[in-house]
Write a structure and sequence with these properties.
By secondary structure, this protein is mainly α. It is built from 13 helices and five strands. The strands form two sheets. It has a three-stranded parallel β-sheet. Strands 4-5 form a two-stranded parallel sheet. α4 packs across α7, α4 crosses α13 and α7 crosses α8.
Length: 327
């Protein structure tokens, strides 16, 4: 069996931002292009988002948007299944089995639960917020994923999936592959100019579909120091450079660093350069996005979910035989 790489897209917001692009979309597409002997699984984490909102209109709109964005960023449908777990019974079935094997203490120490308790009172948190990592483990283990690209804040969830898979394997015979998290450390977290992680929650982001005027306004508002144009500048201490370098080739990055260090680089020029590099990246994505219809997305999800379900059914049959659910 070829290597399997699995990740997910959560319809949390009505669009994705450049932080999502650099730590999730772009690395995913690069892996597709560079690894020839792998199967890719990309699922729509709408069951996860349902733990936080039950508004069907928001769920539908956000789901359509983020699937379109992955397609607009050149996700290769010949190598990848993009599917909807809500149409695949195996996710809920395996979730139940893993829930029965998980002790309360394990979930109480998960970051997702601790963060929820810190924000809200315990009686305002749904049971599924508490059990969220178990569903994620089921999503991963159901397809025997070898590698799981995640951000730093999701690493613990993959570690739990590894632990519960090993527990099942020890108790019921070898059934699940043990997944490995992949974190591209240099862009695992994209920091905005307030030195916090770029996030819609902090309202400190630039969206992939944001209009040019809004983008330009945000770029112009990036704070800089008071050094004169002729003074040499440390690029690593410049908010503008730290964002610009994400869009650059190694050669472009070296050239820009030299300009900073040599002096006579104005912050006005640096901001204009950042804006142009952003446009070079985002304009083709916007164009592709606008050419994809909702009907096309629905068709892809239906077809790919059917293929994913065939794989999931085989794994659930194996699991049920191991635990004697099938006599």
């Amino acid at each position: 069996m070829s290597k399997r790489i699995l990740t997910w897209i959560k319809p949390t917001w009505s669009e994705l931002h450049i932080g999502n692009y650099f730590w999730a979309l772009k690395p995913f597409v690069e892996m597709q292009n560079s690894i020839s002997d792998a199967e890719f699984f990309l699922f729509l984490a709408n069951m996860h988002w349902f733990t936080q909102t039950q508004d069907q209109e928001i769920l539908k709109r956000n789901s359509m948007t983020i699937v379109k964005l992955y397609l607009a960023c050149w996700a290769d449908l010949k190598k990848t299944l993009i599917y909807n777990p809500a149409e695949i019974p195996g996710h809920a079935q395996l979730n139940w089995v893993l829930t029965c094997l998980t002790i309360m203490w394990t979930m109480e120490r998960m970051h997702s639960y601790k963060d929820a308790v810190a924000k809200w009172k315990s009686w305002e948190i749904s049971v599924w917020t508490f059990c969220y990592p178990i569903l994620m483990a089921a999503d991963i283990l159901l397809y025997d994923a070898d590698q799981v690209p995640v951000g730093k804040d999701q690493k613990q969830h993959v570690e739990y999936a590894r632990d519960i898979a090993q527990k099942f394997n020890n108790n019921y015979w070898e059934t699940f592959r043990i997944p490995e998290p992949i974190i591209k450390s240099e862009v695992a977290t994209v920091i905005w100019t307030d030195w916090r992680k770029m996030s819609k929650s902090y309202n400190n982001f630039i969206g992939l579909l944001e209009d040019e005027n809004s983008m330009l306004k945000k770029v112009k508002q990036i704070p800089t120091d008071a050094k004169a144009i002729e003074e040499p500048k440390n690029p690593d201490e410049c908010n503008v450079y730290n964002l610009t370098r994400l869009f650059l080739t190694p050669e472009e990055d070296k050239e820009l660093r030299n300009k900073y260090e040599a002096g006579w680089l104005s912050y006005k020029y640096a901001k204009e350069y950042l804006f142009e590099k952003m446009k070079e990246t985002l304009d083709p994505i916007k164009k592709n996005f606008n050419e994809i219809s909702d009907d096309e997305v629905s068709k892809i999800l239906k077809e790919h979910s059917k293929k994913a379900n065939e794989i999931a059914e085989k794994k659930i049959k194996e699991v049920y035989e191991r635990i004697w659910f099938i006599l």
